[in-house]
TrEMBL record:
Xaa-Pro dipeptidyl-peptidase-like domain boundaries: 47-206
Entry protein name: ABC-2 type transport system ATP-binding protein
UniProtKB keywords: ATP-binding, Hydrolase, Nucleotide-binding, Signal
SUPFAM superfamilies tied to this protein: alpha/beta-Hydrolases
Pfam families referenced in this protein's UniProt entry, alphabetically: Peptidase_S15
Secretion signal, residue range per the UniProt entry: 1-18
Native source organism of the sequence: Pseudomonas panipatensis
Lineage: Bacteria, Pseudomonadati, Pseudomonadota, Gammaproteobacteria, Pseudomonadales
InterPro entries in the cross-refs: AB_hydrolase_fold (IPR029058), FrsA_esterase (IPR050261), Xaa-Pro-like_dom (IPR000383)
Entry keyword Zinc-finger: no
């Protein structure tokens, strides 16, 4: 028994151990004050799978009730096991969950099936499993927790919170379960197949990181030993896998007009190379087709690859900054989340007035608040340019193609698009990677904006990832093209001949902006 406890303690440094049922005897406490505390619980899913959870009980006076927040962890993660646990101290959603508990909310943080201390197989956000598990947690809370704020029988006032994998479950659960009133999806996907493999080209850098996390913290490799998933290690996502991941995405729900009903505060990262800002913008566009209040905060951080593939920020594992700037206003993301819940769950009108409809970070010190992104910028003819995919980007420098010189201080916001007027090469095997870049006045080296790189289709149009930047007069915007990208290891076509780019580039929107250097909190 002692050896088992020590093993569980050691394993909890990497993943959560299975929970034991420690539900207090609330009947004996009827009519009494409830102190702030926490305990473990086991929740049964609809198929009998045991889900390990930790329940955080708020301090409540006799007769007081509180809404419920359900916290879901990211890929390779586990539940918040207590106030001093790793996830609650180091991860953005875990810290926010603990702040919500201390602010007077019931919080349930649970291990999703296949992770941490929960049983079951990882099903890649299957609506039949992971999504239904979220409803099972709400059902359990309605049956077992006292003094929940209720909207009706078996209908607590419910919010959800989580990043990445734990953000996706909120979007689908809010479409399936009308009891969910407010969600905060952080750095998650709209279309998982498109996010992981734009144009079918798998982000092998991220695939390696995700599989490594699965090996170190997941108890069941699940689908990853299936033939179709193993075949994707070649660099192209197998067609059955693409279809399955699309089926498990909000994009499919939106196509079928099954819209989430909950009010949504979306937080997405500009430098996030796994789920970039475009995914958050698509979520926002989908949810706004319904009657929900939908707002989006674009921070700098998110999923950041380890060096040398991306510049390390020195921030915690999820690489998010605590404060973003929206025009003249600085917003603490944790206070913004609590303000969202105060209005949407606690019934405080105007509680979230400090949260803008749309805020896009330009860097760690400045950003811009607006209602919508500006209209696209100029469409620039792409000068005929020859590139050799075999060597470009590793044996020789990537090719920078100047497109537009900035005339005044501006904010660049939006999604560029490359439109090729002819195929890159004689066959369909030529592959290049493109990024929007800026060469500062007086500098010879271009900088890839937000480190976003996209595989360039051999012909036709390719939408690059959305970017933002604060630009000064004289800065030069251009297209940086190469045959190799560290984000797409093994995807290079190794095409030995020269290929020629011809066409045009639709630049993102440019609007006048006076840079302001703010002191970081």
């Amino acid at each position: 028994m002692r050896l088992t406890a020590l093993l569980c303690l050691a394993l909890s440094l990497l993943a959560g151990c299975a929970a034991r049922d420690q539900l207090p005897d609330y009947a004996a406490r009827a009519g009494q004050d409830l102190p702030a505390s926490w305990f473990d619980a086991v929740i049964l899913a609809h198929d009998g799978t045991r889900l390990s959870a930790t329940v955080f009980q708020p301090a409540l006076k006799a007769g007081e009730s509180a809404p419920l927040i359900v916290h879901t962890h990211g890929w390779g993660g586990w539940r918040v096991t207590g106030p001093d646990g790793f996830y609650g101290q180091q991860m953005m959603s875990g810290r926010a969950a603990l702040k919500a508990w201390k602010a007077g909310y019931w919080v349930i943080s649970y291990d999703q099936r296949g992770w941490g201390g929960s049983d079951g197989r990882i099903e890649m956000m299957d609506p039949r499993y992971e999504v239904r598990d979220a409803s099972a947690v709400i059902d359990w809370a309605a049956r077992h927790l006292p003094r929940l704020r209720m909207d009706g029988p078996n209908d607590p006032r419910v919010g959800m919170l989580g990043e990445s994998y734990g953000g996706a479950v909120q979007l689908l659960a809010a479409a399936e379960d009308p009891r969910i009133d407010a969600i905060v999806p952080i750095a998650t996907w709209y279309d998982l197949s498109d996010a992981l493999a734009p144009g079918g080209q798998l982000k092998m850098g991220w695939a390696g990181v995700l599989v490594s996390l699965g090996l170190s913290t997941g108890y069941d490799l699940g689908k990853f030993i299936d033939a179709d998933y193993l075949h994707s290690a070649s660099g192209r996502l197998a067609a059955p896998v693409r279809a399955e991941l699309a089926e498990h995405s909000l994009a499919r729900y939106c196509a079928e007009n099954r819209l989430p009903r909950a009010d949504a505060l979306i937080i997405q990262g500009m430098r996030d190379t796994l789920f970039p800002l475009d995914q958050g913008l698509a979520i926002r566009q989908c949810l706004r087709r319904g009657h929900a209040d939908v707002r989006l905060l674009g921070m700098q951080g998110g999923h950041i690859l380890p060096p040398p593939w991306q510049a390390w920020s020195g921030l915690p594992p999820f690489n998010n900054e605590p404060v973003i700037h929206c025009g003249a206003r600085a917003i603490n993301l944790y206070q913004g989340i609590l303000a969202w819940y105060a209005e949407k769950l606690a019934g405080r009108p105007g509680g979230a007035d400090s949260v803008p409809s749309l805020c896009v970070s330009l860097d760690l010190d400045q950003g811009i608040a607006l209602d919508e992104l500006p209209p696209p910028g100029p469409r620039v003819v792409l000068p005929p340019t020859q590139v050799r995919p075999l060597s470009s980007g590793w044996l020789q420098q990537a090719t920078f193609i100047p497109l537009h010189r900035v005339g005044e201080a501006s904010a660049l916001l939006g999604t560029p698009e490359v439109q090729l007027s002819q195929p890159l090469g004689p066959g369909a095997d030529a592959l290049l990677f493109a990024a929007l870049a800026v060469r500062r006045q007086g500098s010879g080296s271009p900088r890839v904006l937000d480190e976003q790189v996209t595989p360039l289709a051999n012909r036709g149009s390719t939408r690059l990832n959305a970017v933002s930047a604060s630009l000064a007069a004289g800065d030069e915007i251009g297209l940086l093209v190469s045959g190799f990208s560290g984000q797409y290891l093994f995807n290079s076509s190794w095409h030995a001949g020269l290929v020629e780019l011809r066409g045009a580039v639709q630049l993102p929107g440019l609007q006048a902006f006076s840079p302001r250097l703010a002191s970081r909190p």
